[in-house]
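Known limitations

Structure tokens in this collection are predictions and should be treated as such. Users comparing against experimental data should check residue numbering before alignment. To illustrate the layout, the record for Asp/Glu/hydantoin racemase is reproduced below. The input appears on top and the generated tokens appear beneath it.
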Amino acid sequence: MTDPDDQQGRVGLIVPSSNTTAEPEFRAFLPDGITVHGARMSLESVTVSALDAMSDDAARAAELLGHADIDAVAYVCTTGSLLHGPGFDAELEGRLREAAGVPAVATARSVVRALEALEADRIAVATPYTADLDERERSFLEAAGVTVASIDGRGLAANTAIGALTPTDAARQVLGVVAGDDLDAVFVSCTNYRSLAAVDDLESRLGVPVITSNGATLWDVCGAVGLEDELDGPGTLFDHER
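Generated tokens:
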């Protein structure tokens, strides 16, 4: 149990209601002195219409997290923060920052910041998503100046099915995506896709940085408030400053 006298920070997470991965992955790589506090937005299926409706709850969730005297807030959903294309992620961060009164990040923008920190211009992407969301993600990343050499989705819409995937599933998918490609990095997309535990092994096998949605968001939100030195996250990304 965390001793209140050892409290170093509080991070607020705004997550889809069906997400079972983000909070455990954040807690696994944060020291005891940084606590995680969640607020949820209604989402059962990862579809364009459901993600669009979910974002309406974001500002209210951020406002409520602000009541807990958090240090920073993260909107922890990849496709939900890129749904409307370039600029929507930054606009979303602004709305959350105003509502919570603290620095705010959104996963899609966190991923772009992570790729910039790694100087990764050409990547492969593994997702659990359907084809229409994969194409929206490709368009978003390429608008940010990143070449997507390949993108592979599992075709899943039910978020509980995504949450049932394991780090082993993620590793197998990544190894299938990157075959023969000359890459600067690999990105495993989706905050409900358990993949952080696979990062170190994948990097040793592939020889390039591997980032995940939760890893990028964790790195970004802690960096936004100067808590990055407290992190012991997996992979190359956590050796870089925000």
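For this record: The longest strand covers residues 9-16. The CA atoms of residues 120 and 165 lie 27 Å apart. Please report discrepancies through the issue tracker.
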